[in-house]
Amino acid sequence: MNKSMILIGALLAVTTVGAQELEFESAAEAVVNMRVGWNLGNTLDAHSASTTNMWIERWTQRRTSDYETAWGQPVTKPELFVMLKEAGFNAIRVPVTWYPHMGLKTNPNSLVWDKKANPLGTRVDADWMQRVREIVDYVVSQGMYCILNVHHDTGASDVAWVIADRESYSENKARYESLWTQIAEEFRDYGHLLLFESYNEILDPYGSWGYPSSRCEGGYDRDVAASAYEAVNSYAQSFVNAVRATGGNNRTRNLIINNYAASNCAGSSTYSKGPFTRLEMPQDPEDADRNHLILQIHHYIYLENLKTAKTQAVSLLNECREKFIWKGIPVIIGEWGTLDSDTTDIRTDSRYESYLDYCKYFVQQAKMRKIATFYWMLLSNGESRSVPEWSHPNLKDALITGYYGNNGYVGVETVENDRGSYADYRVSERIFIRNGRKYLVR
């Protein structure tokens, strides 16, 4: 039998504790221990994205792999996370879009989904839940933190059903709580490495980014904004209540709350700061001090000027520290990147060095403030994931040296000896277990 598989099974046995309940590390401790992270994007979050062009449902057999590969990524393999772990990444965010797998019915001869005639159900398809669990297992078997969320069930697309609007919340409250109850029950016995994230970028009915009602006439509508903030806070409370009610390790599992649009609140107006100032962190029925709740925001910029980008980064991170961390609410940057450089082949970008400089700097500054960062995509993309290999190794180096210093990541223990003598268990090409201790051979 493959010894690496024995070890993976052993690690899973540690992670899935069974009926024994654990008192998890605090949210603040978890954020520090995440170190530096990455998003497994465009994978389990892939979907058709339009009620008038349900192309995955129309033109595929709707297997789990049809969705997983729909946006250009290969079927995910465990070796990808071995590579990430060896490089020094210690946390993976796994975005998941659930609505196509909740009793979604469409006309097999049409691209159109009539949401009123064929509303979503409340039960998650068993094969989809199983595939989600497999990928979570890939991550936690490497001793990495895993964040599991509700992703493109939110957003600006007309397929979204988790919407920042009080009326929509009332209509979908039961479905949303049922979804999180099912997820929580599926993973109830998993250990502290697994965290749940309430929802991704939740928007108002107008698809307003930045702050609610920004797309309304005049750029702001008081009633629309009030409805949106009320719904965001209500969804957050429903999420916490549903997870905690399932018991087991979910009683103290660390949970992640996003503000409106996961907004970084760029700008100086009262409106633009609303996603921070009007967020109400939910009450935790299992912990009056709320020591197991984390706030997540996202941060994307156009890298037009390196000095300006760095100044903006420091301003945001300081604001997170002052408004939340110093008040006992730990923060993660669940998605980040540069919109003008990393959406194309950055290796040919004339600002490539500035791009790498910025990425390293952002991770450095976040670490100084005890904020974990999760880069969006790019590190290993497309067929590179199948190998696996780095699509942009220089970017990987920038992120890793930004966190660990210029010497990079050297692992838990580093030995110069021949690797054969340390191969009681071979986790991967460079990681071995001997007598219960972990070694990284270089």
Structure characterization notes:
The protein is an alpha/beta fold and 442 residues long. The chain has helices at 3-15, 27-34, 55-59, 64-68, 78-87, 126-140, 166-186, 222-245, 270-277, 306-323, 352-368, 393-404; strands at 36-39, 91-94, 145-149, 194-197, 255-258, 293-301, 331-338, 372-376, 414-415, 425-426, 431-434, 437-441. Strand 5, helix 9 and strand 6 (293-301) form a beta-alpha-beta unit. The longest helix has 24 residues, at 222-245. It is globular and about 60 Å long. The relative contact order is 0.13.
In short:
With 442 residues, the protein is α/β, with parallel strands linked by helices.
Layout of helices and strands, plus pairs?
Blueprint: H1 3-15, H2 27-34, E1 36-39, H3 55-59, H4 64-68, H5 78-87, E2 91-94, H6 126-140, E3 145-149, H7 166-186, E4 194-197, H8 222-245, E5 255-258, H9 270-277, E6 293-301, H10 306-323, E7 331-338, H11 352-368, E8 372-376, H12 393-404, E9 414-415, E10 425-426, E11 431-434, E12 437-441
Parallel strand pairs: 1-2, 1-8, 2-3, 3-4, 4-5, 5-6, 6-7, 7-8, 9-12
Antiparallel strand pairs: 10-11, 11-12
Helix pairs in contact: 7-8, 10-11, 11-12
Order of helices and strands: HHEHHHEHEHEHEHEHEHEHEEEE
What proportion of the residues form beta strands (DSSP E)? 5-15%
Q: Name the CATH superfamily assignment of the largest domain.
A: Glycosidases
- The proportion of residues forming helix, as a percent range, comes to 25-40%
Cα distance, first to last residue?
A: 26 Å
Q: Which descriptor suits the 3D outline?
A: globular
